[in-house]
Write a structure and sequence with these properties.
With 236 residues, the protein is α+β, with helices and mostly antiparallel strands. The protein has one domain: Hypothetical protein, similar to alpha- acetolactate decarboxylase, domain 2 (60s Ribosomal Protein L30, Chain: A). Helix content is 16%, strand content 45%. The longest helix has 11 residues. The mean pLDDT is 96.
């Protein structure tokens, strides 16, 4: 559906350590050609770009997984740029956020974000695959392997989500990266950018898929503030 962000499960399910995949990626790809997420058992970082499915793993490499692999959490859309502009001169992640906030002023809708360019420095991480019994998600994030790359060209893929989706999705910016050669990628932590192009797609509709009649949420006490518990575990 046009102008629609579609997501599988909710963020609070991950905070409750529901890491098992609940929807095959081939089904996910019916809802978008652009997006981010993770894979069954938190096995790396998902990047969907131009309809291609990519998996950034903790060995520092990017793979093309079988679309039969499932996801416990992902966010996708059909990317159609509503605004675009060139980026000239040095830009880091905070400057990019300020730039987008100025041009996309309505923070109460979803924006899909695509940034293509050359990066003298890119820092990413990748989620490590988990085994049962699953650890708390804060410990999983702390165990992420980080990668620093110099002089790489590629595309940042992600979303700016509105504040009211706290616990459902990740409010604010969530960005992943894929290099042009499709060899490097992951969750963006920091970067320096020389030049490029930024485009955003306004997504005014929001669809949440809960497979198997919501079984993924069964037994989770959603009256708790799981986001707060996660942030406290990380020392935020």
């Amino acid at each position: 559906m046009a102008n629609t962000v579609t997501q599988v499960s909710i963020l609070d399910a991950l905070f409750a350590s529901r890491f098992d995949g609940c929807l095959p990626c081939r089904e996910l790809l019916k809802h978008g050609d652009f997006g981010i997420g993770t894979f069954d058992r938190m096995d790396g970082e998902m990047i969907i770009l131009d309809g291609g499915l990519y998996q950034g793993k903790t060995d520092g490499k990017v793979y093309r997984p079988d679309p039969g692999i499932s996801t416990p959490f992902a966010t996708v859309c059909y990317f159609k740029p509503d605004l675009s502009w060139p980026i000239s001169g040095p830009t880091d992640i905070e400057a990019l956020k300020i730039m987008i906030d100025e041009k996309a002023a309505n923070k109460n809708v979803f924006y899909a974000i695509r940034v293509e360019g050359s990066f003298p420095y890119m820092k990413t991480h990748a989620l490590p695959v988990q085994s049962k019994p699953y650890l708390p998600v804060a410990k999983v994030v702390k165990a992420c392997r980080q990668f620093e790359t110099k002089n790489v060209s590629g595309t940042i893929v992600g979303f700016r989500s509105p504040p009211y989706v706290r616990g459902i999705n990740d409010p604010g910016y969530h960005l992943h990266f894929l290099s042009d050669d499709k060899m490097q990628g992951g969750h963006v932590l920091a970067f320096n950018m020389e030049s490029g192009q930024c485009a955003v797609s306004i997504c005014s509709n929001h669809l949440v898929i809960l497979p198997e009649k919501g079984a993924v949420l069964a037994g989770i006490d959603l009256s708790k503030d799981l986001v707060k518990e996660f942030e406290e575990s990380l020392g935020k």
